[in-house]
């Protein structure tokens, strides 16, 4: 099978302009590498980000990267590439027509827009992974909830309806897509994978303080306030807020005031954006992981924490809701049940053997269900079904003659 992966604003072989995008670049590289290892021919189409970049590059993972000229040859954010999407789609259409793949798989809504424009003209069936959807109740909002001049939510609905197939990362995202008017039969659920060579219980650990229990967490400022207030009542604990703004900013200064108000002034660490290659070292230094965010990016970090052997306490919604098996790999809390959350945190902070048991089960689940090779197998099945359906649509079976239809 021949597959085109389309990622307009991110390249799997170049370091992105911002640290936050490293996770997405690593995921694209692991997927392309795993598909290639499974025998699939993979071409990754992305926008040329440096003037000296070759038009075609063979990646270490064995797949081909095609750099298409579209706008200035420099790194850009997702929405920054929109003015150049038409030029990117035009170049992509020419490539798909010349090297026609069985399926074109777009990653992100901007790439989905370009793929819809290009693949339709080249008569190539399309698969789209959004990797996070805008708030459909507020069409002018972006995925992170901040205002945007782009009507992203309405564009996502059009892209979703025009695609031949959609891949959702979890059941909640699949349900959201159906509420957007997409037929449920068009949606397949394939979770994001985890690099088990990097994220495992063994390996180096980041330095830590003297507290007997270190809690790492991802989430919003409100989530941080919730966890800081709960841990402030527990002695001998340390809180690490992973990601967020860089230390020294006004936002982190406000969070430090929140931590101090709950007695966590000397027991809280703000990492700021973390390089993806350093994430496993940071996670292995913790004893417990907390995620109160439903976003896929936060869910991926949660999966990486599970692979590193950490028990997880998370709200049972979104991507993390599909990761955590309550009572087996961690504790799933119904949001916003603060009392339940406080009780589970206290029990795990004070029970090392329970943390160990949940962590071992979580690591086993990450290895058995979320290994990239298995994710690639599931993804190939979606590609094959998409290609078969497209072929049947273009080459319908002739009707059975009436004489034969009713013959005894």
Written account of the structure:
- With 408 residues, this protein is an alpha/beta fold.
- The protein has two domains: 2-193 and 373-394, Glycogen Phosphorylase B (Rossmann fold), CATH 3.40.50; 213-369, Glycogen Phosphorylase B (Rossmann fold, 3-Layer(aba) Sandwich), CATH 3.40.50.2000.
- It contains 14 helices and 14 strands.
- It has helices at residues 22-37, 85-98, 109-122, 152-162, 171-179, 221-231, 250-261, 276-284, 296-307, 318-323, 338-349, 352-369, 372-394, 402-405; strands at 2-6, 41-47, 56-58, 64-68, 103-107, 126-129, 165-168, 187-189, 213-218, 237-242, 268-272, 288-291, 312-315, 330-333.
- It has an eight-stranded mixed sheet, with helices on both faces. A six-stranded parallel sheet has the order 11-10-9-12-13-14, sandwiched between helices.
- Helix 5 links the parallel strand 7 (165-168) and strand 8 (187-189).
- Helix 3 runs parallel beside helix 4.
- The two termini are 42 Å apart.
- Mean pLDDT is 92; it is low at 136-146.
């Amino acid at each position: 099978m021949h597959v085109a992966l389309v990622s307009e604003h991110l390249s799997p072989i170049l370091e992105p302009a911002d640290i936050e995008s490293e996770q997405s670049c690593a995921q694209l590289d692991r997927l392309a590498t795993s598909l290639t290892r499974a025998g699939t021919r993979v071409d990754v189409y992305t926008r040329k980000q440096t003037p000296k970049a070759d038009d075609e590059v063979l990646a270490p993972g064995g797949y081909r990267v095609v750099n298409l000229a579209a706008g200035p040859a420099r790194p850009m954010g997702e929405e920054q590439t929109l003015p150049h999407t038409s030029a990117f789609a035009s170049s992509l259409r020419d490539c798909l027509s010349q090297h026609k793949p069985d399926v074109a798989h777009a990653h992100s809504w901007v790439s989905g827009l370009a793929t819809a424009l290009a693949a339709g003209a080249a008569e190539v069936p399309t698969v789209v992974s959004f990797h996070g959807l805008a708030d459909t109740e507020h069409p002018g909002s972006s995925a992170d909830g901040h205002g945007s001049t782009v009507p992203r939510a309405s564009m996502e609905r059009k892209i979703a309806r025009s695609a031949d197939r959609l891949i959702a990362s979890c059941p909640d995202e699949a349900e959201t897509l159906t509420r957007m008017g997409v037929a449920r039969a068009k949606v397949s659920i394939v979770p994001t994978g985890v690099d088990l060579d990097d994220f495992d219980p063994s390996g180096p650990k980041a330095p830590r303080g003297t507290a007997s229990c270190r809690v790492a967490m991802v989430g919003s400022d409100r989530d941080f306030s919730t966890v800081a207030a709960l841990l402030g009542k527990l002695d001998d604990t340390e809180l690490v807020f992973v990601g967020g703004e860089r230390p020294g900013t006004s936002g982190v200064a406000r969070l430090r005031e929140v931590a101090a108000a709950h007695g966590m002034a000397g027991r809280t660490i703000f990492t700021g954006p973390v390089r993806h290659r350093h994430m496993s070292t940071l996670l292995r230094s913790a004893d417990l992981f907390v995620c109160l965010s439903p976003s896929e990016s936060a869910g991926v970090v949660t999966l990486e924490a599970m692979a590193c052997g950490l028990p997880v306490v998370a709200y049972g919604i979104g991507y993390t809701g599909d990761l955590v098996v309550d009572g087996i790999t961690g504790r799933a809390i119904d949001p916003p049940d603060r009392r339940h959350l406080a009780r589970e945190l206290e029990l795990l902070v004070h029970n090392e053997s329970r943390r160990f048991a949940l962590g071992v089960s979580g690591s086993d689940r990450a290895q058995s269900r979320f290994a990239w090779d298995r994710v690639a197998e599931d993804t190939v099945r979606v590609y094959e079904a998409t290609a078969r359906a497209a072929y049947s649509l273009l080459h319908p079976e002739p009707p059975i003659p009436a004489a034969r239809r009713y013959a005894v």
